[in-house]
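Please decode residue identities from the backbone states below.
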């Protein structure tokens, strides 16, 4: 009797970008300028993030099995006794647990919308042009490519032996053993993006 147990666990976790820019504060102030002056306070925050997760997981199991019982023969006896061959059995079990987690790839990224911008212009001369501008932009691009392949090739053969009772004065018994195949495949796939 042959018994085969294969257990496989694969865990792939996406790279964590936890070094995002913390919320920042920017300020500017202009005061006491002459006539016809151009006064401008400008603040701009731009944040660009790109995350590429390429996960390639492959599980391949080749499991050829053969089980054969012997021949049971009662031959050329005055009084034949009993002859019995043993059982032949194949038992194959594949358990594959695949887990892909890319959710931590965006952990710690800042939100530039939380940035504080302040600007003040005061006490400027006549006919002055005064301007306070503030802008924030944030762009996040996430590309997840998850390729999971599970291949299980399970070829099983179980053959019972030949039972023969012949050429006896008093015939006995000849029994061949059982032949059986058992195959179990259990695959769990969990993807979190």
């Amino acid at each position: 009797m042959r018994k085969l147990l294969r257990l496989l666990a694969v865990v792939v976790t996406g790279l964590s970008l936890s070094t995002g820019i913390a919320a920042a504060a920017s300020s500017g102030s202009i005061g006491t300028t002459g006539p016809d002056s151009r006064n401008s306070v400008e603040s701009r925050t731009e944040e660009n993030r790109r995350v590429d997760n390429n996960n390639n997981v492959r599980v391949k199991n080749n499991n050829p099995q053969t089980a054969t019982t012997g021949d049971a023969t009662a031959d050329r006896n005055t009084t034949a006794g009993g002859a019995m061959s043993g059982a032949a059995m194949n038992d194959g079990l594949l358990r594959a647990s695949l887990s892909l987690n890319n959710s931590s790839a965006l952990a710690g990224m800042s939100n530039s919308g939380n940035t504080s911008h302040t600007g003040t212009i005061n006490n400027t001369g006549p006919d002055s042009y005064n301007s306070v501008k503030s802008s924030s932009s944030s762009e996040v691009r996430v590309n997840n490519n998850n390729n999971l392949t599970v291949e299980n090739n399970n070829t099983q053969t179980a053959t019972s032996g030949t039972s023969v009772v012949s050429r006896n004065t008093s015939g006995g018994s000849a029994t061949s053993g059982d032949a059986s195949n058992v195959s179990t495949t259990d695959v769990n796939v969990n993807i979190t993006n």
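Observation: Residues 4 and 92 are 5 Å apart (CA to CA).
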